[in-house]
Amino acid sequence: MHDAVPLLQDFLIHAARTWPTAGALTCGKRRLTYAALCERACRLAWALRQRGVERGDRVVIFAENGVEAVTAFWGGLLAGAVVVPVNPQTKTDKLGWLLDDCGAAALVADDRLVPVFAPAADRCPSLKTVLATGNPIFDAALEVAPGNEDGVAVPPRQGLDIDLAALVYTSGSRGEPKGVMLSHRNMLTAAASIGQYLGLTGNDVLLCALPLAFDYGLYQMILSARHGARLVLERGVSLPAELMKRIAAERVTVLPVVPTIAALLAQLRDRSPWDLSSVRTVTNTAAALPAKHISTLQFLFPKARIFSMYGLTECKRCTYLPPEDLARKPGSVGIAIPNTELWLIGDDGERLGPGPGLGQTGQLVIRGATVMQGYWNKPEETARKLHPGPLPGERVLHTGDLCRLDEEGYLYFVGRMDDIIKSRGEKVAPVEVEAALLAIPGVREAAVIGVPDPLLGEAVKAFVVADDGADLDEATLRRACAERLESVMVPRRIKLVPALPRTDSGKIRKVGLA
C-alpha cells in the first residue's frame, strides 16, 4: 500500500490509485469516485494547512452524514491532524465544551448549522480556523491546492502509526463525555480484523444510516475505503420503507443495524415488496440480537449471513458471533475478533475460568492493538480502565462490562457494572429482564432500571414501547415476566411509553428514564 508503515488515510490514497473510477460514495443524488473523493480530501487538507493546522492538531467535524463530512474526515487526516467527529444534533453549550476540551484548532461544519456552532466557536480561543461547507468561502478554499501532472498533489506525509488519528467522544449518558484517544494503529488493526471476519471485498456496497460521529457508523466509511467498496450514506432512518427502497435500488450487500433499526424494520415484516436479495451480510453491535430481531432480519434478508457483534468505543470491537453459531449459541455475543484476546476477572482481579454451563460472572478484559490510548485529558479515568497486562509495559482494557464464558469460550453479556440492580440483596442484570420483555408478543422495545425502594434497596422498573395496535397493559406484562423470570427479576412497575430517550449515538439513555 505504501513504502512506509500505513496510516489510516492511506486507505483512501490506495483506493484512489488502484480503483480511481470505482464508486466510492453515494449520498442522495451525489456520487463520487475514489479519485474524486481523494482529490476533494487533498484540497481540504491543503486548505487546513494553509490556515495554520499542524501535525497533531484537532480538527472537529460538525456535519450531517454526507459528502462534506466524509471529505472532512479524510482531509483532516491528510493534513496530519487528529479528527474529532461530533454528532450534528449536539447543542451549542455541549459543542463549546467539546471544542474547549479537545483544544480544537479547526472546525469544519455544515453551513446550515451556523446558529449552533458560531456562538461556540466564538468562545473557543484555540480555534485557528472555521470552514463552513456549502458556502463560497469553503468552495474557494478547496480551489487553492498545489497540483502536479496527476492532478491535486497529496500533502506530504506526516506522522507515525502510534500518533493519534481520532478522538471519539463517548455519549456521556452517565456524565461528562470522554474523548477516547485512538491511534492510527488502533484503527488500522480494528479495520483489518473486522474486514477479515466479514469477508469484505471491492464488490461490496455498504449502507450506513448511522451517524459518522458514532464509531459503528464511522467504521463503515473506513472499511469501505480499505476494501475499495462503495458506501451508501444516509442521514438516518425515519421511514423504514424508504430505507428498504434504497437498499433495493443501490443493490446493497452489507447492512449494519442497531436494535432501533431492527425494531423499525420489523414493522415491514409482512409487507415487504422490495427485492432485497443483494444483501449478503447484516451486522449488529452493542449486545446480542434478541430472537425476535433475528427472526425479522432472516425473514427480510433470507440470503444474508447475520453477525451479532459486541464492542466498546474504547477498543472498537470485542467479539463477533459467527453466523453458523447463531442458532447454536442463542444470547451469545460470540468469540474474540481476530488479533484480540479476552478473559474475565473476579472482584479480586484474578482470572475466572470458562463454564461449565455459562460459568461465573466477571468483568471483561480486552488485550490487543485495538485498545485505546486512554481518555483525553482524563488521567484518573484512564487509570481506572487501562491496567498492566501479561507482558511488561503493556496495558489491557478493563471494560466495566460483566460477562460470562461458556466451556467453548463463547461470551455472554450480562450488563454494565454500574447498571446492575441490587434488589433483596441479589444482583439483577437489566439485560436479562429486557430480553424477557422483548420475547413477549407486541413488545417493540424495553428498558429496565433500578429505582430506590425502602424495603428492597432497589426495585426493578421497566419501560416498554408497544407495537402499533398491541393490546398490552402492566398486569399482562408482569404475568408474562413471571412466567419467564425468577421472582427477584420481575419488574415491580412497568410503564408503557410511546418512545424511549436516546443518546446522540441512538442508544437508550437510561439516565433520562431515571
In brief, what are we looking at here?
The protein has 514 residues and is α/β, with parallel strands linked by helices. The chain is globular, with a radius of gyration of 23 Å. The mean pLDDT is 90.
Strand-pairing-aware structural class:
alpha/beta
Number of helices: 15
Our Rg estimate from Cα atoms comes to 23 Å
Outline: globular
Percent of sequence in beta strands = 25-35%
Average pLDDT across residues? 90
Instruction: Indicate the percent of residues in helices.
Output: 25-40%
Largest sheet: 6 strands, antiparallel
* Gap between N and C termini: 50 Å
Low-confidence stretches: none
Number of strands: 29
Protein architecture, described:
- The protein is of the alpha/beta class and 514 residues long.
- 30% of the residues lie in helices and 27% in strands.
- The strands form 8 sheets. Strands 18, 19, 20, 22, 23 and 24 form a 6-stranded antiparallel β-sheet that branches. Strands 13-14-15-16-17 form a 5-stranded mixed β-sheet, sandwiched between helices. Strands 2-1-12-11 form a 4-stranded mixed β-sheet.
- The longest helix has 17 residues, at 34-50.
- The termini are far apart.
Offer a few descriptive terms.
6-stranded antiparallel β-sheet; globular; alpha/beta; about 25% strand; 5-stranded mixed β-sheet; about 525 residues
